[in-house]
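Handout, page 2. Input:
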Amino acid sequence: METDRDLGFLPATALAAMTRSGQIGCLELLDHFIARVERLDPRINAVVVADFERARARARALDSQADRSAPLFGVPMTVKESFDVAGLPTTRGHAALQDAPVTISSLSVRRLEAAGTVIFGKTNVPVDLADWQSFNPVYGATSNPWNTNHTPGGSSGGSAAALAAGLCGLELGSDIGGSIRVPAHYCGVFGHKPTWGLCANTGNPATTASAPTDIAVIGPMARSAADLDLALGLIAGPDPDETALSITLPPPRPARLADLRVAVWSAEPGHATSRETTAQIEALADFLEHAGAHVSRTARPEFDATEAFHLYLQLLDSAWSARLTEEFLAEKREAAAALHPEDMRADAVMIRTTDIQHRHWLRLNERRHRFRRLWGAFFQAWDVLLCPTIATPALPHMQEGPTWERRHAVDGTEIPYNDMLFWPGLTGGYHLPSTVAPLGVSRDGLPIGVQVVGPVYGDRTTIAVAGLLERAWRGFHAPTGWA
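Output:
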C-alpha cells in the first residue's frame, strides 16, 4: 500500500493501474482523496462543491464490476466549477445560480465518466471565468498551495490548486486567455490548451452555450504529461449528436530530444517578462542544445508580435461580448469615448472593440487566419516553440476593483494587469495547441512553467515534448506541507 503522500500525488495513469489490478479498491482510493480534501482543503479552498456520497455509490459500483478495462478506472477527479455535472449547480461565481442544479452533464464530463473516472466535486473559479484570481461571492477565494498569500491563477485556479495539493487524481479546465495555462504555471502542474474546436463540450442548455466560443477551449490538467495525453484522447472529437465523424490527431514529431527542432522565444521588447522567467527558459534552451536538439533563439513567425497581440485582444473582446450585460456595455462605451488615441494598453485595445460591426469582425477574422498561416509556415521549420506562459510567477491575491484598474510589478516596473495577456494571447488567439510543463522555481519559491506550442492539431507533439522535458528536465514536484 502506498503512503498517504505517494497516493495523493501519483499520476492518474498510476492510480488507474492500481485500481485495475486490484491493488486498491475504487472506494478505498476515493475515500483516501476525500479524507485529504476534508483535512487539507480548508487551507486553500479549492474544492468548493462536494459530491461525496454519489461518488461513493459510483465507486462501489465500479468495485463490483468484473470488467476493469476502462482507461481511467476508478480514478477520483474533480472538475472546474463551470462544467455541468448533472445534479450540481453551475454558477460561474453567480449567487443566483447556486440553488439551481443542472440536469445534463457536459459532454466532456460524460466522456470522462465513461472512461471510468469518479467525479467527486467541483473546483473554484473567478466570476464569469474572467480573472487570474479565483474568487467569487459564492465560494470565496482559493489560494496557491505553494504560498497561500498568492493566487493559484484563473480561471481554472481551483483545478490547479487541487492537483498541486494532491486533492484529486485529474482535472478538467478551460482556456480563452490562459485559464488552463496560467494556473498550471502558477501551481507547478501540467496543463494542455488544445487546438480550438478539437474538444466539443455541449452541456446543460441553461448554463452552457450550444455554439462554440471563439478562442475558448476545454482541456485536461494533471500531474504528468502522460495523463494529459490519455485525457485528451478521451475528450477530443466532435459532438456525437451532430456527426459520426471521428478525429485522429497526427502522431508526435521526433520522440528524442536530440531530434527536436526547437524555437525559443523567451522575451519580447515592449512586453514585460520577469528576468528570472526568461533566464529559466534560456537555461532550458542551453540544456536542449547540449542534448543535441537544434535550437534557435531568433526564429519567429513572419509577423509583428505587437500587431498579433492587439489582433488577439480585439478577437477576445468580441468572443466574450455575448455574455455582457447592457449595463456593462454602457460602461465600456463611456470608457471608449474617453480614451486617448495613443493609449494602447490591452484594456484600451479591447474597449475600442465594443459594438464593432459584424463585417469588421469578419475582417479581423480574415487577418487572424492569415496569421494562422504564418504560424503554420513557421512550424514547417520548427517542431515546437518554447516561450513564457505569462509575465511572472504567481501573483499575490488581488481582489479589489475590476481587472482593468489593477497593476502588477514586473521586476520593479508596474504594468497594467491585463497587459499580461501577451504570452497567453500570442499563441491562443491563433487556435494553436499549447502544453504547459513545470520549468523551475523562482527565488521566492513559486513555480515557473514553460509553454510548449505547436502547429494547429499538433497537440500530440506539444504533449510529447512536455513528456520529454518531464523526464529529462523537471517533472511535478509537490509543494511542502501537503503530505
